[in-house]
Amino acid sequence: MAVRLLTIAGVPATIVARHDTLANYYSGPVLFAIPGGVLLALAGIIHHWRKQNDRKSFACSCMYLALMLIGSAVALYPRLLPSSGDSGLDITVSKAVAEPYALGVGLLWWAFGMYLAVIYLVVMYRMSAARSRLRAVNTGIDRSEHPSTL
Fold this sequence. Notes:
This protein has helices at 2-17, 23-27, 33-50, 54-76, 93-96, 100-139, and strands at residues 79-81, 91-92. With 150 residues, the chain is mainly alpha-helical.
């Protein structure tokens, strides 16, 4: 209920507070499909929640969040962080770009971090599976009768 009220009240309040919010939408009318998708996702959350279909309700809530984020990015572009005063002080895409060397170093660190995350995931999964097998042996559970206990 709160999400519906905040969405219905928040979007018009944002448009009143920042008159240029819809400028990018008017320049590409196809972009108005994004707010339409937000409303459909919101309706989907309510519909599937009432039918007690948790997976579809969760999927609709993920779509709602993603489309709200995309809609905000479309409304702000090329600004990343608008200034409350002088628009010359906005942080824009061109002002926030890093040097190519810094981007390359960041990419290497990101790749190394992802590698460590995958290793961590594999190790933790194997430890968890081994613990489950040990627990099944100690308690005398036959895994063929209980396939949910690994």
